[in-house]
């Protein structure tokens, strides 16, 4: 994903610098909190009213992708806004206030925003030119170890590498064929898989520490499970089924699928105690991380462990309302993607119509069609009315109301 992400966000209650490798993957600003620039009007066509400086492209891409999964045709102005953010190089920055100005060396383009935009535009169709340019830029930003950092030249991290894998797949490219220094993205992810014999074995680290040690990170794990399976932010239920694992799989020759199975097993165990994941932010370790929990549900479903999603999904249905209302379009999108991955009806998510909530944060959609991916659809039930989100940002902004929902929270390096 993610977030899910990877991230950097500036919010009313806290400012945290998570490092240069921050990744957005499932994370975004808090719409209910005062933004970094409260007087700035939200750009026309953009979802959410919070300052878009750090996550505009990220949250817009997730919103459009989530709408597509539920059969909603976004407003043309929303799609045009995203397309207009692209630089001539093909890359995307988190946000460009003046999209008519040429990008230069000071434009903070990044892999996460670019990969998210590719996935969204590919899902919508009709944007082959923009997608081709973006993919060429991403290929040029690959590191010698086969992976990607948040910004070109930055050390590879699990979230960024996974987001780019998802972009390649969405564009119709085979990620395994894209090699640099003799290594593919899948090999870069395997190198970030914590050895089974170590604490947190089976999980993925965001990055190695300065001594090369790998520390389990649930946010990075949720993202890397999808990446190792060759899946993007919106996998179809069971599309990347790697089979279940009873124990961590290791060894020198373990495959990307083995790494994904081990990562999914780690997530399932981490969720078993409380039914949700906790924040790894300093001072907020006891608070639930709604965004990471939603991303973990998506990863588990994609890995074929739908049984392990029942409890966290039920927890999200019961407890995510206030968080999503505060966090805005990215949060609603994460929840819709979790519902999509598990075959749950996003229009009746614990009594909340997530599609309506998301649509209401931006321009009214052009069209809504019946979704065919939920359990309710399979039973021929009526969806009801419809209405109008691995990873954000380089330097991270943390919202008070959804503490733990980092613009991709993916810079979290502490173990749960």
From TrEMBL:
Region called Disordered, residue ranges: 359-381
Transmembrane segments: 388-407
Keyword Endoplasmic reticulum among record annotations: no
InterPro entries: Terpenoid_cyclase/PrenylTrfase
Span of the signal peptide: 1-29
Protein name, entry field: Prenyltransferase/squalene oxidase repeat-containing protein
This protein's UniProt keywords: Membrane, Signal, Transmembrane, Transmembrane helix
Protein species of origin: Streptomyces bluensis
